Amino acid sequence: MSQPNPPLESVSTISLRCLRCQKSYPADEVRYLCDCGSQLDVWHDLEALRPLLSRGLFDGRLSGAPGPRVTPTTNSGVWRYREIILPATVEHIVSRPEGNTPLYEHPRLSNWVGADALFLKHEGENPTGSFKDRGMTVGVTQAKLLGARAVACASTGNTSASLAAYAALANIPALIFIPAGKIATGKLAQALAYGASTLQIQGDFDDAMTLVQQVCNEMGVYLLNSLNPFRLEGQKSIPLEILQGFGWQAPDWIVLPAGNLGNTAAFGKALYEAQQLGLVDKIPRIAAVQAAGSSPFYQSYRLNFAERKTMKAETIATAIRIGNPVSYERAIRTLEWTNGLVTAVTDEEIMDAKAMVDGVGIGCEPASAAAVAGARQLIAAGVIQPHETIVGILTGNLLKDPGATVDYHTGAWPNAQFANPPVQVAAELAAVRKVIEQRL
Ligand code: F0G
User: Fold this and answer.
1) Which pTM does this prediction carry?
2) Which CATH code of 3.20.20.70, 3.40.50.1100, 3.40.50.1440, 3.20.20.80 fits the domain covering 101-229+251-440?
3) Among 130, 136, 207, 397, which is best to mutate for testing ligand 1, by the most ligand atoms less than 8 A from CB?
4) Interval 319-336: pLDDT, tens
5) Contact assessment for residue 339 and residue 355, using Cβ atoms and an 8 Å cutoff
């Protein structure tokens, strides 16, 4: 199966290309938008790559390096696909390593969702506990290649945790803009612990996003939000790993939570490219799931994108509390490429789905559970058929947001279906025994 690796110089064929007017720029130019104002893609020469890349090449890299030292090119689920992500040489790569996340399946959960088989790709099991590490290994590697003096992002928490870690690894100062009081405790703790300069903005995520772009443009700091096309290249490895995990036979659906729409954008590009390269014959349909209180993309979708909706966002799933998503255009393209769709679920549905995912021993943060709630809703509505193969993306780890979990189980949600409150017991054996006898 194993094939020799193509030399990287033969695949160094990337540039930045506008997705609207097609204007292209050199890949080593620091820019996030085209002169026409539209977003940029990292463009790969798929024609030149097609004869060099194959299923066998990627399968041959699966085993990892022998011995105690990990190397990104053999141990990372991102750099395994380096020719179609960022053709960097190993000494420049900043990696933990990331990716190679498990694909779970649990009959009780599939049953609750109404599917014969629901698979869950657990991106919360990445090094800093979210899928952001896949984008950040590429974004920070590119920052290093460009000689950036500092890196920055606005974040609902996971991007900042990941940026803080990877910037620390690369020894580059990190500036983080977060909405004050609106990110989960675990995520704030990570940013502080990894040594990032943390600015708590007295506003929401959308305000922080506007500010960080101004700062990056004025102060020569490298922006590592998903507006940065290199970030999205790394996140492409999630669907690539799914396709490879299924033996290059595409599942019918990938269902994912959608906030700033970076993943929705990256998934479409990855699937399109995989098909163009002949790695798969068929690609899955994408279902993007928003929280009802933070659903501008869903509102626009319902209008057939005749109008771009924005809103003042609110939801328990703070990771996706976003009212003006950055990758709007790129996400529409994903729907076109994958025959995709968008839906929205309530906070109650999110928290009940989370309790189900947690309760089977897998666990995730609230935003991730939107994928599971969305799959359940789409099956009930007859959009997804029970026999179809569904992969839900769990984007973040249970431990990211202990507050939301404890609140759910201790009565904050009157209609909580699966609350598991702790029991107060006197420090006496008889009292303890009584509680246990009631439970078993
Ligand atoms: N799930 C989690 C756990 C997230 O942290 C995010 C985004 C999403 C889903 C949505 O992904 O933005 O690609 O549509 N978090 C960003 C952050 C915004 O700052 O950490 P998206």
Assistant:
1) 0.97
2) 3.40.50.1100
3) 130
4) 999 999 999 999 999 999
5) no
